[in-house]
Amino acid sequence: MAMDGLTLASSIREMEGQLLGARIEKIYQPERDELILALRGSHRLLLSSHAANCRAQLTKVSRQNPAEPPMFCMLLRKYIQNGRIAGFSQPHFDRVLEIEIAAADDFGEPASYFLIAEIMGKHSNIVLVKNGVVIDSIRHVTPSISSVRVLMPGVPYAPPPKQDKADPREADESSIRAALEAHPEGKLGRTLLSLWSGLSPAAAEEIALRAAQSAELSYGALDGARKALCVKRIAAFFEDVRAGRFAPTLTLDPVGNPVGYFAYSPISVSESAKKHFDSTGAMLDEYYGLREKAELTRRKGHALNRVLQNNIERCRKNLALQQDILQSSAKMEENRLFGELLTANAHALPKGARVARVVNYYDEAGATVDIPMDPALSPAQNAQKYYKKYAKQSAAYSMAGARIKEIRSELDYLEGQLENLNNCTEDNELLEVREELIREGYVRPERGRKRPPKIAESKPWHYLASDGTDIYVGKNNLQNDRLTLRDAAPGDYWLHTKNIPGSHVIVKSGNPTEQTLLEAALLAAWDSQAKNSAQVPVDYTPRRFVKKPAGSRPGFVIFSTNRTLYVTPTEEAVKKLRQVN
Prior knowledge:
This protein is of the alpha+beta class. Helix content is 39%, strand content 20%. The strands form six sheets. Strands 22-19-17-18-16-15-23 form a seven-stranded antiparallel sheet, sandwiched between helices. The mean pLDDT is 91.
């Protein structure tokens, strides 16, 4: 969902209340399209030019920063770090935030800089401007990219093209009535969208619904009294915007996931499907939090995903090959039979024959069999050729069973790692998976690396059962090992999907209720390859019956005296369990 002018205005209102006069203490660029300004009073201002997640907000979410700051970050530190926020503006109520910063120039003289966040989807950008000239931008726009507007160091800054729309902050009943009278046809929601800036289609429909109880009616279809009421209600909405009276609200799907955010409480959505916030920043943190973190992790884990997929495909091809070998026993026995029959009849067969018709003395009826021959070889040499084929097939056949077991074990490991990769929500969890794949020989370490990097120990998911019992769920193999072999007490209960790659689950109780075990089994099934299946088998046993064989791979254990539960995982059921941060 894109940030519209209304939500940006709500966000700016918070910034004005908390950041005016604040000193910029530090500047970070955690991602190539994202800036964070750390300000006095532990405030953090986030500016994002990401195509899908572009926005400007106060945030409390911390982010990991690269070891080496990007060039744009270094430039901002040079010009505006230690400067003070002098003001915020939103020209024409468009999706543009201009932050005025009072700092010092290269000669130590007072200077004004403007950090401009253009929040416009794939055209989003963050630009540093002084005296109307671009110092630099987070994304360069060259003449080859756009013939309308160039954003490069040293060129005059040109704002985004102004739309032919009115600023709702300047609207009153008279101007609203005149605008609607000039456009009486068409659906009211679309009319509002075309007349005033800063409105998303959803916002325009919301205003129309408040004004005329329908976004589908046209203004011209209303009678005189309803037209007057319509104008009055639109003016009241715009007055709330002008006065900064906002009501940040998330809309939720049936299982409680955020699906939209608004600067007001939409009347088209039931209260049970809304979540209200005291601040726009907190609302945006919740909306983008898990979604953005998961997206970044997927992006950073793309190379690992490709490695795992390639190796899984290799294993599947090898497995099919070995299974074909096991199914080729009939052909193998035929080669042995042909070798024996040719040996027994070699003295009676002419050299240079293409087919040898001989009696099959293994057949009780004494039937004949035609054996293909290489005319360039003698009958005895043809017999040896069949014997060699048999010997080669026999050796492969005897090894196929063991190879199938090895390949299936490797395939289970790789599919488990793919599931672990999908579970990663933090950089250190992703690094743990990468380091494990390096140790197992699937990923090459960086050239010149002397020792593995020190990685902060990641944490498993922590849930509370309905009776308050702690339940822990591992996200990767290292977490699974730590959780099962180090953190769990012998009497705690251990759960895992039966013969399906998935997470280790620990119930911190020696005598859990049946309901708690069912909830833990639900989590085990949800965090496995079978999350979209019904009646998923989940084994459970006290932790003391779980062992790790010497030399086995991370995450691999054996267990005994287990019992099995069958559960059907759903997102709605998992959401009902309280997750502890």
